[in-house]
Amino acid sequence: MSDNWPPLDTHAHIDVAINARDLLSLRAVIFAASRSLDESRKAIRRRPRDMLTVWGLGVHPAVKDAYDSAAFSALLDETAYVGEVGLDGKVESRLAQQREILVSILQQLQQRPRLTSIHSRGATVEIVEELERTPITGAILHWWLGDPALTERAVDLGAYFSINASGLRRRTLIDTIPLDRLLIETDHPDGNRSARAPRQPGNVSDVEEALASKHDLRPADLRAKTWQNLATLVRTTKTGELLPPRVRAILESTA
Description:
The chain contains 10 helices and 8 strands. By secondary structure, it is an alpha/beta fold. It has one domain (about 10-250): TIM Barrel. α8 (about 205-215) crosses α9 (about 220-235).
């Protein structure tokens, strides 16, 4: 494989009103997570104009917003990426409602797998339990903070893990994540607050360098490995045809 892979950011938040040219100037393939069905509709409608951005369908558990199973299902047909969804234990008063929504989403994803970025702040045990009850293909645990034993349970379920600059502080956790389940994210603008400038979606170089050092790899080889991991996820979820053509072409070159 060559060293000419573009940066790969598997979870970032981007204003859906951003100019297409400004988005392309980031020079990275970015999976842009949405927080609500309304934001998701606006984001997914942009798809034909954004050559390197994969816009997600999301219902963030910490955002109080109406969830509609039929609306979610209709939008699911239009994207390869679900993000972000999950549970947030910091909003304990709505945790039961969050679980109902997550179960509904997981049930749909069992029938139509997608690359699925899952939020688990304050609810790592509950997330693994829900994935054990309703397993899906394509789960990506974003900004994961579970302990090593819980991480191993998630690995056994087939989950992948997206690491950002803030997550690098959890060395014991990172040691538990297999290299072939590793992805990188910025979670801009929150997960990259400690990252080097420019602090923007797609700038994953510092995370790549840290993880490459841990695995005794060159940063270019670590980046290539994350692309291979993404390609495996796309194949197993059979979502390639839903990706922007340029992103699909990059993935096809990993073979």
